[in-house]
Amino acid sequence: MALRVTRFYKTTIPIDGELLKVRIQKLTIDQWTRFVHEFERLGKVFLKDKLDLRPRSGEEDLTAEEIAARRYGELSAEARAAREVEELAEAERGNQFAKDVIAQYVTLEPDQVFDEDANQYLTTGAEMLEHFGSRPDVLRDLVAEIFLQNRLSEEDKKKLSLLRVSLRTWNEPTPDRGTRPASTAEPAPNAATASDAVATDAPDETPSGSTPTSRSSSAPS
């Protein structure tokens, strides 16, 4: 049996309680090199803080936030202004990187998100940015998904999919058992285990064909 490949990875992204089906483009070696370079650089920038947050004598009981506030207050007005300019520049660079890769590498499956003003469904990464571009959670999840889908093996993706479903199931609120009427029937045998539910509810991570999605101009019923 021949190995089947496509130009896209199929996955899901949670937005406002809904799991949206998206396609992530397979990156070429050159695209991957550029993506990872900026992805890892931004991660190092966000983890790095130029303020010395090590507790000094008498600060052992202070929180990290309180120490940071002290250090920031010790800076001169010029140093604070320069720091703010640098932080803004880094934030803008990170946002631009996220917007560029989402617009280039992400496609939304049709018939999921309807734009009432434009009277059409969203299908492109650029259209998603028009509506969710100010949402750091959406940008973060989409950029991370580009990384994961191009980095993980198919076996690791299946494990990740099961883990995500398990976490969603774990976080779902349980019904109030006190409101249920008492049952006099004998307990039914376990027809399905928790692992069965995870397996059946798992999103389809198997790559599919790369037929381009098309816009639909009809309103949802």
What does this structure look like?
The protein has a domain at 8-152. The chain has helices spanning 29-47, 64-74, 77-105, 125-132, 136-151, 154-171, 194-201; strands at residues 8-15, 18-25, 106-108, 114-115, 120-121. The protein is mainly alpha-helical and 221 residues long. The chain has a 3-stranded antiparallel sheet with strand order 1-2-3. A two-stranded antiparallel sheet has the order 4-5. Helix 1 (29-47) packs antiparallel against helix 3. Strand 4 and strand 5 (120-121) form a beta hairpin.
Protein traits:
221 residues, mainly alpha, two-stranded antiparallel ribbon, 7 helices, 49% helix
Question: What is shown here, in short?
Answer:
The protein is mainly alpha-helical and 221 residues long.
Helix content: 40-55%
Strand content: 5-15%
Q: What structural category do the secondary elements indicate? A: mainly alpha
Strand tally is 5
Radius of gyration: 23 Å
Mean of the pLDDT scores?
Answer: 78
Number of helices: 7
Helix and strand succession?
EEHHHEEEHHHH
- Within the largest sheet, what's the order of strands? 1-2-3
Which spans of ≥5 residues are poorly predicted at pLDDT below 50? 181-218
Shape: elongated
For the biggest sheet, the summary is: 3 strands, antiparallel
Straight-line distance between termini: 42 Å
